[in-house]
Amino acid sequence: MLELKGIAVSNGIAIATAYCIIEPDLSFEKSSIQDTDKEKVRLRNAIVNAKVELEEIRNQAKTKLGDEKAAIFQAHLLVLEDPEMLGMIESKIDEGINAESALDEISTMFIGMFETMNNDYMKERAADIRDVSKRLLAKLLNVEFPDYSHLNEEVIIIAEDLTPSMTAQLNKTYVKGFVTNIGGRTSHSAILARTMDIPAVVGTKTATNDILHGASVILDGSKGVIIVDASDEITATYQLAQQVYNDERKLLERYKESPSVSADGYHVEIAGNIGKPADVEAVLSNGGDGVGLFRTEFLYMDREELPTEEEQFIAYKTVLEKMKEKPTVVRTLDIGGDKELSYLKMDKEMNPFLGHRAIRLCLDDTKMFRTQLRALLRASVYGNLKIMFPMIATLEEFRQAKELLEEERQNLLVSGVKVSHTIEIGMMVEIPSSAVIADKFAEEADFLSIGTNDLIQYTLAADRMNEKVSYLYQPYHPAILRLVKMVIEGAHKEGKWVGMCGEMAGDEVAIPILLALGLDEFSMSASSILHTRAQIAQLSKEQLAQHLDEIFKLKTANEVSKYVKLHLSSINKQQ
Q1: Total domains, the chain
Q2: CATH classification of the domain holding 535
Q3: How, if at all, do strands 216-220 and 225-228 pair?
Q4: Which residues pair with 157 in a beta bridge?
Q5: pTM score, two decimals?
Q6: In this structure, are residues 299 and 312 in contact, taking their beta carbons and an 8 Å threshold?
Q7: Given a cut of 70, is residue 539 above it in pLDDT?
Q8: pLDDT score at 471
Q9: Arithmetic mean of pLDDT, 154-175
């Protein structure tokens, strides 16, 4: 038995076999062959097997993800069927070398040729050839090529890391959890795990080395513990804990139709964060009061070109219609930092989280930005749309973004396109400078939404993607609490509402403090909505507020946490 520890990022217990996503060993030796015909037959058999595998993956991707995302596998099939490339590989075999060496030489030549072209589409073909060549080489070497898109049994994914687009494609029917070597609580794969309600532990450092493919794994996403090949006794203990956890989740169902109100009658909104239209179902099934954050960047990921205005319009319209008149807060494109687009030329930066990202990128590439704004405005008549701009540092940025939005509104109206006249325009507060002058922003914004994931990162100068400094992700740090207080008070002074869409909004230690400060909207992973509503229902805002002076005298995050657990967790109307 082996026990590993990492960072707990998504609650729940999973018990299943390990599915290791690791680069297979595709090493081989160049050798001379005498029977070239036999070697070419071996190549053709490998091609047939690779095609069967790719066709299966394509068909499943088409069913689960749609034609667009399945198109990449169609492109891979076309590479396998390219007569010029395959003819050149066979010619190399005719020179007396083995199929592996012939494949490597020709694919390397094509990859190099495409990568040097000044054409983004052609450069993407280099990636296709590289992927297909790896799959074909694996077939020649009789090496298993990991691919979880066609899973048909329950597994726990073990990987170095999972990109946001990879995580978004996990099939909950079979993927019961995942473990990674790297990552932190606020990495986007972790956030998506919570959105999808999949238990996850990240930052283990050695999981891919310590856990063998097919091993029996217990994953405790609440405590950050992974147990490999556990005894029957330990397995039974976790099975019981898993049942208790599931039973507790079922008990929370009674809060699904309940109003989001404290024990002393203070109403708040408890909303859900989403990354794609399909995530709306989880928000609604958990009784969410709205969508507090639609991360639109996921519409741009896992594809080979920018989404068109029509594609975006359909996505936004779908979400708004499903939410009916419930508020839907859409964040405009937030690319950069840990989120990159392969087809978008972005310079390598020393500090990408502090660089050309989010609103800065959009204000620079106004053509791309205007496309998104038009799609949002066109969709606005189908529901209760609110738009917010990310990573605003200056009033000038906010004003410029609003001006572009207004220009596109007028262009659409002149063209006879209907646009809602009740769209609220707000901004993310995730940079300390914005929090300090929140009152000034509130004079020109309809609402403010606190993005604590980045606010904590920037305030404490700690890369939230770096597990070595994960201890500095401290939502209860006195500096963070003071900034949050500034934002809420500054906005309320101007009669504007304040939401929070960072992970802190669903943190059971932070919730009493946020309620006492008068936060209007709590937005979180859908799986946290019912638990948060149940917690707020037991708390009295008026009584909590009496503790704020003491809380703001505390000097460390640990002191704040201890105080809340000791004094605030049980304050309700019965006291």
Answers
A1: 3
A2: 3.20.20.60
A3: antiparallel
A4: 19, 178
A5: 0.70
A6: yes
A7: yes
A8: 84
A9: 76
